[in-house]
Design brief:
Number of domains: 2
Distance between the termini: 50 Å
Structural class: alpha+beta
Order of helices and strands: HHHHEHEHEHEEHEHEEHEEEHEEEHEE
CATH class of the largest domain: Alpha Beta
CATH superfamily of the largest domain: Bira Bifunctional Protein, Domain 2
Largest sheet: 8 strands, mixed
CATH topology of the largest domain: BirA Bifunctional Protein, domain 2
């Protein structure tokens, strides 16, 4: 979340950032509550000073034998104490109202983020690889998955509902191979520590990374246990250090495979058919903790690490920078990686790599000690390294053959028992 002091001192900048994001928040109402809170605290502190002085005076009156005056002074101290209790309750109520508003205010976009009205204003920074050409009519992945029995969409829908596919045979093995390949890459070449976190989190963890309260309707929830199936491994990984002071002189880099659960799967239709948008999907995530001085450089390192996955798989992709209106709620800056999928004739987002600045750390109270030993908020970053469904789409559609088989990227073949083709 944003620092209330920053909002107080820069209200116009915060309001302009909301305009640039196409977002709304009651900044003026927040500042009114903040002013009222500070006035109440000032009054309470003054009364506490008065009470301390009066309490000391009671002892002197008793020693002097002025019992009636001492009793009157005690009554006055009691009244002051009652008023202080009233003011403390007012502060508590104001804190709740302030917290409610401030948790709904998105992060400030970094100064370098392009201002735009929607995703059409996202600039393409670079492309890698070449657009593949075919001498036969290409098929969409759902047809190939059905023919090769890689995914059973109908039985998944029967078991749970739409958006919950069942991977079978070589399809299931491909999922496992991709997860192992990405975890091995990040831990052996990119310096990550692998973590296997819980797949459910409590409300504090969801609030710490920004999913709650704003996106509560997008989350699955288990009322009996007051737990949320995670929408991304970013939540448990970031909250590993919630309410801690950590050492980030060297960036802390964590990676994890988890399933992800999201209710906001979108409407049915050809644009969301097959594996394009799911309620449950697998993802390998990368989370970094660093100092403010290192975070910008670390963001560039993080996007390169995500790109390396796709380069080794030989897939044609592009990197775009999100403009202000398309920026995620908690992000100060974000790059998206999109894969080309010829079967559906679209670019598909497969990774978002975000720098959150101290926005998440302030919510989760994750700090480090600066060179003077003073606690400061860390900067957090995360990136998909990468999400599997659309990666599988791109692999299948780009590597399909005229005979109906799918050639596997060479880097995956050891993970597939030496298999060269799906078929």
């Amino acid at each position: 979340m944003l620092d209330i002091k920053f909002i107080r001192e820069n209200p116009d900048a915060v309001k302009q950032a909301l305009v640039n994001r196409n977002a709304e928040a009651d900044v003026d109402g927040l500042l009114e509550l903040d002013t009222a809170r500070r006035a109440v605290i000032t009054e309470a502190e003054g009364l506490k000073t008065e009470r301390n002085s009066a309490s000391k005076n009671i002892g002197g009156l008793m020693k002097e034998g002025k019992k009636e005056e001492a009793e009157a002074a005690k009554e006055e101290v009691r009244k002051i104490g009652d008023r202080i209790s009233e003011l403390d309750e007012q502060v508590r109520e104001l804190d709740e109202k302030i917290s409610h508003i401030i948790l709904y205010i998105p992060n400030m976009p970094a100064p370098t983020v392009p201002v735009g009205k929607d995703e059409t204003d996202n600039p393409v920074l670079r492309e890698w690889g070449e657009l593949k050409t075919f001498d036969f009519d290409v098929k969409p992945h759902w047809d190939i998955c059905e023919e090769l029995k890689l995914v059973d969409f109908e039985r998944g829908a029967k078991i749970t509902g739409s958006g919950f596919p069942v991977y079978t045979g070589q399809g299931a093995k491909l999922q496992r191979a991709l997860i192992s390949f990405m975890l091995d890459l990040h831990t052996t070449e990119h310096g990550y520590t692998e973590v296997e976190p819980p797949f459910v989190c409590n409300a504090d963890a969801m609030t710490g990374t920004g999913q709650l309260p704003k996106f509560s309707e997008d989350m699955y929830y288990i009322p009996a246990d007051e737990l949320y199936p995670i929408p991304t491994a970013e939540v448990p990984l970031t909250n590993l250090y919630r309410e801690e002071i950590i050492d980030v002189n060297k960036p802390i880099k964590l990676t994890a495979y988890t399933p992800c659960f999201r209710r906001e799967a979108g409407a049915a239709g050809s644009t969301n058919r097959g594996l394009l948008r799911l309620h449950q999907f697998d993802k390998v995530e990368m989370v970094n903790f660093t100092t403010p001085e290192q975070s910008e450089e670390q963001h560039e390192i993080l996007i390169a690490e995500a790109e390396k996955v796709l380069q080794l798989l030989g897939l044609h992709y592009r990197v775009i920078e999100l403009c202000t209106a398309d920026l995620g709620f908690s992000a100060a800056k974000c790059y998206d990686i999109e894969l080309w999928a010829p079967g559906v004739d679209r670019w598909l987002e497969v990774s978002s790599v975000s720098n959150f600045g101290d926005y998440q750390a302030r919510r989760a109270r994750i700090r480090y000690r600066d060179e003077n030993g003073k606690p400061q908020f860390v900067h957090t970053l995360n990136g998909s390294g990468v999400a599997l469904p659309r990666l599988v789409v791109a692999i299948i559609e780009n590597n399909q053959n005229a005979d109906g088989t799918v050639t596997l990227p060479e880097i995956l073949r050891p993970y597939m028992g030496g298999l060269e083709k799906l078929g």
